[in-house]
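User: Design a sequence. Structure:
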């Protein structure tokens, strides 16, 4: 072999090595960017529901009209987020007089505040599923809540406790008497 052939071979080897490094870099970049994307889920609004139990009043009911944006990947919770609303006008306790009163200004004031809103701030894994922290806004007042939830068979099921006193809705003398147990069921398509 002559010197020119050796130089050409070395140049070709350098080019191939550089191309392999670039291809490897591009492959890792694509994989990393794909792993940093959460899956956007579409909810089944017709079947989504919030069940509640106003403990001291022994009043149970539901809220429907759920809309939500869910970005969720159980393997990448740092990028997960849930944001949603519930339509106050769908609030039902199976008592028409009470339901009508709950829409009035002294209660939920549905005309001025037609939705209850939630926005997550963090989601983490627990032994029994997941825990989500976020702000719930009812009647213009926001409070942080913790929602423990599971996700299986394309359905989110979560529970939390709120207090009506915190939102100036049917206030009681003692905060504990305004306790409301909440269950949220959000199926996804």
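Assistant: Done.
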């Amino acid at each position: 072999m002559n010197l020119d052939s050796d130089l050409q071979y070395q140049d070709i080897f350098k080019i191939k090595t550089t191309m392999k490094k670039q291809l490897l870099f591009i492959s890792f970049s694509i994989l990393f960017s794909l792993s940093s994307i959460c899956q956007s889920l579409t909810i089944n609004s017709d079947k989504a529901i919030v069940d509640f139990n106003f403990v001291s009043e022994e009043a149970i009911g539901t809220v429907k009209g759920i809309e939500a944006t869910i970005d969720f990947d159980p393997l990448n919770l740092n990028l997960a987020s849930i944001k949603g609303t519930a339509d106050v006008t769908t609030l039902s306790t199976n008592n028409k007089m009470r339901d009508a009163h709950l829409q009035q200004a002294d209660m939920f004031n549905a005309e001025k505040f037609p939705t209850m809103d939630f926005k997550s701030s963090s989601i983490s894994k627990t032994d029994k599923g997941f825990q989500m922290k976020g702000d719930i806004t009812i009647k213009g007042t926001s409070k942080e809540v913790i929602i423990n939830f599971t996700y299986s068979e394309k359905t989110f099921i979560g529970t939390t406790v709120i207090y009506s006193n915190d939102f100036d809705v049917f206030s009681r003398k003692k905060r504990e008497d305004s306790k409301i147990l909440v269950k949220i069921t959000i199926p996804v398509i």
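The mean pLDDT is 89. Strands lie at 40-41, 49-54, 59-63, 67-71, 81-87, 115-126, 129-138, 141-152, 155-163, 179-187.
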